Amino acid sequence: MVSDLDRVFSKNAQGMKKSVIRELLKLTRRPEVISFAGGLPDLSAFPVEEVADVTLDVLRRDGATALQYSPTEGDPRLKEELIAHHEREDGITLSPENVLITVASQQGLDLVAKIFIDRGDPVVVGLPTYVGGLGAFRAYGARMYGVPLDEQGMKMDSLERKLDKLKKEGKKPKFIYVVPDFQNPAGITMSEERRKKLIELARCHDVFVLEDSPYKELRYEGEAVKSIFSLDGDGQVIGLHTFSKILFPGMRLGWVIGPEAVIQKLTIAKQSTDLCTPAFTQAIVAEFAARGLLQKNIDSVKEIYREKRQVMLDALDEHMPKLKGLRWTKPQGGLFLWVTLPRYMDSEELFFEAVEHNVAFVIGTAFYCDDGGRSTMRLNFSFPTKEDIVEGVKRLAKVIEEHDKEKKTSGDVVVTP
Ligand SMILES: Cc1ncc(COP(=O)(O)O)c(C=O)c1O
Do 94 and 223 fall within a single domain? Predict the structure, then answer.
């Protein structure tokens, strides 16, 4: 074994840190802990029997090609299905050259970072934003600049100020990263007006928008908002998509859409990563979609999550203590909601107390590229059962109430009438 690993590890590897959340989540693995921490789909939502049938048919019909290497760009049949999906969902017209099939959207994030980011390059992200996006950009040495969100999504006045400031300093971001639909972590959806403003600012500053949208199809109420990609239509936007939440994550399948020149570069980058996405999983999902089963699955998954989201919202309304500053988002879709605690509470402190009381969440700081988010937490409602959601919220409410009393009696908090 080489004696001095720090000498041999690359600068990028030296910059990679163990994920704090993963370390914290290890504490939540006891079976008695009700976890709102993960972002996993409901197991009962997986169409196991249908996948079994489709898999057998694919093997019998196209077995040899399905078990062979395949083009890096992706299975042409799956691409056709995806092009039709975007046309139906969003009125977007794509050609196969605008699509790259990936090993789910985390690989999309990695490849985008790989082709755009040199060490120290600026990237603009939301405060908060998806932790896996932060991890991917950090791994290539990006310098992250955060822009706050409100209930309409990323604040465009703050973004404009940030871009102007960076310009004055001679810095040009490589892209602006957004999760505009039922955002992970906050459950917030960016309004159409903000999406249009985002495109305008991106054009004016000549930067890409990276639109990461795993949850768009999972809307439980309200009107759909057009994707940033479709509102642009001019090559300013790169879109990341995945089957993980609309079908299942186990096959690790996703896709990137974007201008042909970007897709070509991503394809070259992917060749040195894994040569190609597995032909077998692509053939199964292409056949699954061609039989109309994808849309059927999305419809049934939405029913399950719509109910669970309501159970969580009702439980929060009923059990949370009435504290000044304690509030939560009411997402119209997706898998998460976001709790803001009174300012004097630190969700990391609360986390350990919660785990002692057998309930878990993700601390808000994990989703911030700066030191923000101390008094926030993410709750997932897709994975736990409805009974566990109610029981978990009761436990969490009790922990918050007791933590509040402790803070007030310890004198940490000055209570004004
Ligand atoms: C916003 C966002 N992007 C990307 C991913 C990665 O998902 P996958 O790699 O399973 O497609 C997730 C997973 O939760 C996510 O929430």
Answer: yes
pLDDT of residue 415: 52
Ligand 1 centre to CA of 69 (Å) is: 25
CB burial string 223-255: b at 16+ within 10 A, e below: eebbbbbbbbeeebbbbbbbbbbbbbbebbbbb
pLDDT for 202-251, tens place per residue? 999 999 999 999 999 999 999 999 999 999 989 999 999 999 999 999 99
Cα 181 to ligand 1 centroid, rounded to whole Å: 12
The CB of 131 under 6 Å from ligand 1? The reply is no
Q: What is the pTM of this model?
A: 0.96
Ligand 1 near 380 CB (within 6 A): no
pLDDT tens per residue, range 10-33: 888 888 877 777 777 787 888 999
The answer on 384 and 271 residing in a single domain is no
pLDDT in tens, 250-288: 999 999 999 999 999 999 999 999 999 999 999 999 999
Quick check: 263 and 98 in contact, CB under 8 A?
A: yes
Verify whether ligand 1 is closer than 6 Å to residue 212 (CB atom).
yes
Average pLDDT in the 115-128 region? 97
The domain that contains 204 carries what CATH number? 3.40.640.10
Does 263 share its domain with 285? yes
Residues 281-313 pLDDT 10s: 999 999 999 999 999 999 999 999 999 999 999
Edge-to-edge strand order for the sheet containing 362-363? 327-328, 336-340, 376-380, 362-363
Number of domains in the chain: 2
Packing angle of the helix pair 347-356, 386-409 (nearest 10 deg): 120
Residue 129 CB–ligand 1 contact under 6 Å: no
Give the domain range for residue 28. Answer: 5-46+296-406
Euclidean distance between CA atoms 39 and 32, whole angstroms:
18
Residue 413 belongs to some domain of the structure: no
In a domain, 416, yes or no: no
Contact 330, 313 (CB under 8 A): yes
| CA of 39, closest atom in ligand 1 | 14
Report the nearest-CA residue for atom 14 of ligand 1: 39
pLDDT at 417 over 80: no
Question: Does residue 56 fall inside a structural domain?
Answer: no
Q: How far is the CA of 240 from the centre of ligand 1 (A)?
A: 9
